[in-house]
Model the fold of this input.
Amino acid sequence: MSKTISIVIRKGGVGKTTTAVNLASALQVRGKKTLLIDLDPQASATISVGINPATLPYSINDLFTNINAKPQEAIAVTNFGLSVLPAKEELSKTEAGMTATSTGALKPILSELEDEFDYIVIDTMPSQSYLSVNALVASHSVLIPLETHYLAMQGLEQAMKDVAEVKQGLNPDLETIGILPTKVQPNTKLAQAVLEEVKAIYPTLLLPIEIKLSIKIAEASLAGIPIVISDPTHTGAQDYFRLAQYIYERP
Done:
């Protein structure tokens, strides 16, 4: 049975999609059969692994809107072997029509795939949405990326509240893997101050892994080849490989 991990924070530009893409790719490279799910209508995760949404006959949106659609039919595979449930822009219309009763829609979709993968990594929207709640309801655990900047602290607080609310009823077994510092500029006062504040507020959740700021990581995503694939010896790639190892060594 697969382990499903949602990457969640209500703020854009903090490295959420980059983390989802590189974590999924790193797990795949390390021999773990992995599925990346794109739950953002912008389809950033889909594009970041080299898949053009406009060329796809099916996407995850079809699984929400067509009861006869099969999850396996919507899966695309990258040229480096990563399986992807891609997103297309039409997912925004489906998300706009969702209500509180729709929060369990993703779970039965994943139940048809859980025996085919070791890990399922879900990239979510950088805002409050029923799609993101769907991800939390269907997941075993959540990973929260945090840019080491004070403006990101509000997004962290909101993410923790979202997780707590889901644990109260919809998914009481949901675990938090931890808070992952991203875009870290080592030895800067701002980064260290943010990390110290996070550690003071969430002492057991700050991960011992940091994703350092690197333009090459962003360039790799823009090129549609995650840094762990395009340059596995790069410092950023090694950071993500350490994250993958941390996750698959968890009990």
Observations:
- The chain is about 40% helix and 15% strand.
- The chain has a mean pLDDT of 94.
- Residues 18 and 221 are 7 Å apart (CA to CA).
